[in-house]
Amino acid sequence: SVRDLSAEYGVNPNTMQKALTELERTGLVASRRGLGRFVTEDIRAVRELGRNLAKTSVRNFITDMKTLGLSLGEAQDLLNSQWKGRD
After folding, report:
1. Distance separating alpha carbons of residues 13 and 42, to the nearest angstrom
2. CB-based contact 41:31 (threshold 8 Å)
3. Phi, psi of 29, deg, nearest 5
4. How far is it, in rounded angstroms, from Cα 48 to Cα 40?
5. Among 46, 58, 63, which residue's Cα sits nearest to residue 83?
6. What's this model's pTM, rounded to 2 decimal places?
7. How far is residue 28's CA from residue 48's CA, in Å, rounded to a whole number?
8. Taking a C-beta distance cutoff of 8 angstroms, is the pair 24, 30 a contact?
9. Which residues contact 39 (CB under 8 A, 6 or more apart)?
10. pLDDT of 12-69, one tens digit each?
11. CA 64 vs CA 6, 43, 67, 70: distances in Å
């Protein structure tokens, strides 16, 4: 239940309800009347959401690199070294 989840995670029940409503809106969770909520088995929906989150992260990264005055090449070098686990 919303109350159980909110108690488990230490958040207000209204906050938990809003989070669950948002998950339903994105298609990651579905409500079944009288049965509860269930996580989707639609792998395409999960992948699409992942791609959208990745795009947002990339846009934020680009904005941050430009703000810091890095060139495209410098940003690419930084990304490549971090991707490979090097500092």
Report:
1. 27
2. no
3. -130, 145
4. 13
5. 58
6. 0.63
7. 11
8. yes
9. 28, 29
10. 999 999 999 999 998 899 888 888 899 999 999 899 999 999 999 999 999 999 999 9
11. 34, 31, 5, 9
